[in-house]
Each structure stands twice: as structure tokens, then as C-alpha cells.
Specification:
Radius of gyration: 14 Å
Strand content: 5-15%
Order of helices and strands: EHHE
Oligomer: single chain
Strand order of the largest sheet: 1-2
Number of strands: 2
Shape: globular
């Protein structure tokens, strides 16, 4: 937050269904941090915007978020659109209407 102070803004979004959010978080943790789900990191993906939307390496922040909700939430229709380039500003628009994240905080 200190970095963005007087330089920009940050919006915080949450899903109403915490079980869906927890499932996505668990998937992201086990696919991008620790295959065992422990606090010891054993996955080290490279940063990059190449590769398919389904690949895990290279990757970038908004792609990880959308992959987590797409792959980590079972057969629930959480993600409506999965573009080849996942832009952070458009993330809320990729979710289906029933699971659309709600803005809960705005820092400027």
C-alpha cells in the first residue's frame, strides 16, 4: 500500500461464496507454491506472459487468479470467459454472473 500511496489505487474484490474462494486458494497454493500444501515452497514458476492460458510456467499474477477459479472450483460455473491474455483490470468481468466478485475496498 505504501508504494501506491499518491501513485495510484488498489481495489479489493471478494466472492460471496467463501467455499469457492477457499477451493481456488487451495488449488493456487498446491499448483504455484507447495505441491504438499505446506509452508515450504517447492514450486518456482518463472514470470512471463507467453505460453497458453492453461500452462503454469511461465505465468503472471492475474493468470494465476483466473486459473485457480477455473481449475480449482470443480464443476461450478465460476469462470465465464477465459481469454488467452488475462488482464488484471478485467478480472471481475471474466466470472459468471452468479460468482462475480464484489468490490469490498478501494484504496486511493
Amino acid at each position: 500500500m505504501d508504494y501506491y500511496d499518491k501513485r495510484g489505487w488498489v481495489k479489493v474484490y471478494r466472492l460471496k461464496d467463501s467455499s469457492v474462494a477457499n477451493a481456488a486458494a487451495s488449488w493456487a497454493d498446491k499448483n504455484y507454491y507447495s505441491t504438499n500444501g505446506t509452508s515450504k515452497q517447492n514450486i518456482f514458476p518463472k514470470y512471463g506472459m507467453r505460453g497458453s492460458r492453461y500452462s503454469k510456467n511461465p505465468t503472471y499474477c492475474s493468470k494465476i487468479v483466473l486459473q485457480a477459479y477455473y481449475f480449482g472450483t470443480g464443476n461450478k460455473p465460476v469462470v465465464q470467459v477465459f481469454p488467452s491474455l488475462v488482464t488484471v483490470y478485467d478480472l471481475p468481468n471474466y466470472f459468471s454472473k452468479a460468482y462475480k466478485p464484489q468490490q469490498v475496498k478501494y484504496f486511493k
